[in-house]
Each structure stands twice: as structure tokens, then as C-alpha cells.
Amino acid sequence: MEFVRDLFVNIGLWFSNWLAGFLPGWAVELITDLVGVIILVIIGLSAVLFLTLGERKVIGRIQDRIGPNRWGPFGIFQPIADGIKMLTKEDIVPSGADYWVHLLAPIVIMIPALLIYAVLPFGQGLRGTDLNIGILYIVALGSIGTIAILMAGWSSNNKYALLGAFRVVAQLISYEIPMVLSIVAVVLLSGSMSMVKIVESQSVPYIVAMPLVFLVYLVAAFAELYRAPFDMIEADSELVAGYFTEYSGMKFVMFFMAEYINLLAMSAIITTLFLGGWRFFGLERVLPVLSPFIFFAKCVVVIFLFWWVRGTFPRIRIDHLLALAWKFLVPLALVNLMVVGLVDKLVEGALLTAIVLLVANVVEAVVVLFILNLAGRKARSERLKRITAQAR
């Protein structure tokens, strides 16, 4: 039973011991690390195929369309056809562009997207490595993507691309603050930055104990992934196609792939931080082999939420986008952090802490709605006064 409980860890140990029978220690370590990297890369690249097809199908149903239906039964080979088409397109570098920075930008945005998978716990014993600062590692890698976007916009020798890069960087920096504050609340409650220990500490999923923290993180996640309704890079009527306007062929594909690799990674992070990871009412203890399926089932629910929002809500203006971050999410995240800190300090016991936090979140939500209602009435009153004054 112990072998089954840590099945994937034991399979890794068995593979290492088998290699040690005829290879030196350094070669065994190198091969096992290489196999782990290949598995994680395959997971990331496979996510692009499945997620692009799934998103087009789901949004097609939302918009009363069929979606991809030409290549293969039900259009399941459409991502492969699209990949072949993009890989065979000509790679064009604009005149006057900074060649090496233009070349490195898509590589720089792809590498951290894949490196995040190294610390994600996909199941009980199924992970690349358990860093004691795993969530800090993820936050640090997330900041590299911002640099890559700025590199792409600046190196293209195109004013539209440069403006698009500035706009996306402003968006990412603005929403990183409430996102990190929400992560700090989770770390404070769990007492660890290890992704595995955060899962193990959730006898009650944090989405139940801290729904407002979850909502702040979720909204920030939409912005960090620059997905609708925060998809500023696709505001074609304003900035053509954003920071990758001058990219084509394989380079454009790498930007496209990074977006969907990050989508799966973000859904896995949300599952780990707020949905209990691979835990599901003790089922993972009875049948440990099911833990990866539980984890990925939760990821699918989160991904579907991203798709659903994209097919439902229109894009908002950039000034509204930034105001939402600085005037609403940041103050709310700070209040959430203060509430979590006070409850964690004053209340003992996981269940009692979760109940008190839930009550505090409900009270906080009522206060926030009351303040928003007052602000809305004031804005409508001022608007009515302006209209009346203009009519006179």
C-alpha cells in the first residue's frame, strides 16, 4: 500500500536504481533530470494542442457556432494543421529592428512559462521538485515575461508594437501587486511557501475560507494572462496586434504557445492555492493513484471558467483596467491580508479558523458592496447634475 501511496515517487526511485545498475552516479542523476524535464515540456506543449481546440469549441458553442470541424473527426486535428501552417510561414524581421533582441524575445517568454511546471504538484508524489520557496519561484519567473514583452515591442522598430508593449507592461505590473498580496494571504495561513505543503495544509479549501482572496487572485490572473476582458494586446482597432505586430512564423507561434502554456500553469496554481490541489474529501487517501486525475479535473474547471468569461464579457478600456487594479483590487487585497493575519493570530484550529475567515469575508463583501453602491449613487448624481446644467 505504501508503494501505491507514493506511486510516482517510487517509480522514479525504481528508474534511478535501475540506471544505477550499469551507469555511474553522475550519469544517473543527469538522465533522471533530463527525463523529468522532457516530461514537463511534453505536458506544456501538449496543453497548447488541447487548450486551443477546447477553447475554439467552447466559444463556438457560446456563440452558436460549430467551431473547428474540418480536419479530423469533430475537428480534433485542427491544432496540428494550424501548427504546420504557422511553422511553414516566412520569418520576417523588420528593417531597422534590433535583430538579436527581436530573436530572443519569444525565447525569453517561452522558457519561464515551461520552468513554472517544475514546482507544480500535479498529484500526490507527482511533481518535478518540492522547493521550500516554490510560490516565490513562480512569482519570480512570472516577472521575466514582462521583460520579454518589452523586448519584443522595443526591438521591432514599430511605434504600434512599442505602445502595445508599454500598455501590456503597465497592465502586468498593476495586477502583479494584488496577485502577490493574495498569495501572501495564502502563505500566511498555510505557514509555508512550498506548493506541496500549501496543498497539505488545506483541510478546508482556501476558496471556502477566503472567497474574496480567491476572487482578487482570479481577476488578477485574467489580467496576468491578458485574456478577455483584459486582452489589451488584441485591441486591433487601437494598436493593430500589440507587441508582437512584427512577428511571424515560428516566432509568433512561440508567443502564442506561451499564452496557453501559462493558461494551464495558472489554472494549476489556482488549483493548488485555493482548491486543495489533489485533495478531494479524503478520496486521495483511499485511492492515491487518482490524485493526478483529481488535480487535472479541478484544472479543467478553472480553464473552462477562463473560456466562459472570454466568450461572455466584452473588452474593457485601458483606463478602467488600471483603475480597477489600483483603486479597487489593491486596497481590497490589503484589507484581505490584514483580516487573514488577525484571524490567523487570534484563532486556533483549522476548522474554526476557516469558519471565522468565511464570516469575516462575508462581512467584508457586504461592506465593499455598500461602499460601491454609495460611490455609484454619487457618480450618477454628479452625471445628472452635469446633464441638467448643460440642458439649461
What is the number of domains?
Answer: 1
Helical stretch tally: 16
Give helix and strand order, one letter per element, not per position.
HHHHHHHHHHHHHHHH
Strand content: under 5%
Question: What does the main sheet amount to?
Answer: none
Q: Outline, from the CA principal axes?
A: globular
Distance between the termini: 83 Å
What does this entry look like structurally?
With 392 residues, the protein is mainly α. It has one domain (89-391). Helices cover 73% and strands 0% of the residues. It has helices spanning 2-5, 7-20, 25-62, 78-87, 99-115, 134-155, 159-190, 195-200, 206-209, 211-224, 236-239, 249-274, 283-286, 291-310, 318-346, 350-391. Helix 2 packs antiparallel against helix 3, helix 3 (25-62) crosses helix 14 and helix 12 (249-274) packs across helix 14 (291-310). The model has no long low-confidence stretch (mean pLDDT 87).
List keywords for this structure.
392 residues; globular; mainly alpha
Explain the layout of strands and helices.
Blueprint: H1 2-5, H2 7-20, H3 25-62, H4 78-87, H5 99-115, H6 134-155, H7 159-190, H8 195-200, H9 206-209, H10 211-224, H11 236-239, H12 249-274, H13 283-286, H14 291-310, H15 318-346, H16 350-391
